[in-house]
Amino acid sequence: MNLKIISWNVRGLNDKEKRLKICNFLRSWRADIVCFQETKLEWVNSGLVRSIWSCPFIDWLYLGSEGASGGILLMWDRRVVEKIEEAVGNFSISCRFKNVNDHFEWAFTGIYGPNLIRKRQFIWEELAGLISWWNLPWCLGGDFNVIRFPSKEIRGGKILSLHV
C-alpha cells in the first residue's frame, strides 16, 4: 500500500482564507495523512479541522501552541489507517497506526522542534523514548528547527554559504 503523507510548516492557521487555500490543496493532493507544524493554534476543534480537510472520515490529534509559537496538527483518513495508540509530547505528536488494507503496523511522528538551542536536546530525548517504546517501522515529518550545516545562514529569506 502506498500512503500519501503531507508534512507542512504552515506558519499559522488562524486566517480563514489561508485555511480555504490549504483545503483546496489537500483536495487536489488526495493525501491519506496530513501533518501541519507551526499552526500557532492553542486549541483545535472539529470545526476548524473540517475547514482544513473536508474528508468526512477524518480523525485528528493536536499539540497546542504556546502563545503564537509552535503547534502541530496531525490528521488522517480512517478508511486508510487506524490509530492504535497515541503520544503527545512537548515537541511532537505520534501515532501508532495500522493500515486498514494489509494490517501493517507502523508509527508516524510529527515534529516542531524548539527554536532555542538550549532546548534542542529535549526533542532528541523525546524521539528516543518513542522509538524504544513502540519498536516499529517509523516515519518522521516536521520542522526540526535546526540547520544541517552550521556554515549556512539565512539572510533575507535565502540560505547563504558562509566561508569561515
UniProtKB/TrEMBL annotation:
<dbReference type="GO" id="GO:0008081">
    <property type="term" value="F:phosphoric diester hydrolase activity"/>
</dbReference>
<dbReference type="GO" id="GO:0008311">
    <property type="term" value="F:double-stranded DNA 3'-5' DNA exonuclease activity"/>
</dbReference>
<dbReference type="Pfam" id="PF03372">
    <property type="entry name" value="Exo_endo_phos"/>
</dbReference>
<keyword id="KW-0378">Hydrolase</keyword>
<dbReference type="GO" id="GO:0003906">
    <property type="term" value="F:DNA-(apurinic or apyrimidinic site) endonuclease activity"/>
</dbReference>
<dbReference type="GO" id="GO:0005634">
    <property type="term" value="C:nucleus"/>
</dbReference>
<comment type="similarity">
    <text>Belongs to the DNA repair enzymes AP/ExoA family.</text>
</comment>
<feature type="domain" description="Endonuclease/exonuclease/phosphatase">
    <location>
        <begin position="6"/>
        <end position="146"/>
    </location>
</feature>
<dbReference type="InterPro" id="IPR036691">
    <property type="entry name" value="Endo/exonu/phosph_ase_sf"/>
</dbReference>
<dbReference type="GO" id="GO:0046872">
    <property type="term" value="F:metal ion binding"/>
</dbReference>
<dbReference type="InterPro" id="IPR004808">
    <property type="entry name" value="AP_endonuc_1"/>
</dbReference>
<keyword id="KW-0464">Manganese</keyword>
<keyword id="KW-0479">Metal-binding</keyword>
<dbReference type="InterPro" id="IPR005135">
    <property type="entry name" value="Endo/exonuclease/phosphatase"/>
</dbReference>
<feature type="binding site">
    <location>
        <position position="38"/>
    </location>
    <ligand>
        <name>Mg(2+)</name>
    </ligand>
</feature>
<protein>
    <recommendedName>
        <fullName>Endonuclease/exonuclease/phosphatase domain-containing protein</fullName>
    </recommendedName>
</protein>
<dbReference type="GO" id="GO:0006284">
    <property type="term" value="P:base-excision repair"/>
</dbReference>
<feature type="binding site">
    <location>
        <position position="9"/>
    </location>
    <ligand>
        <name>Mg(2+)</name>
    </ligand>
</feature>
<keyword id="KW-0460">Magnesium</keyword>
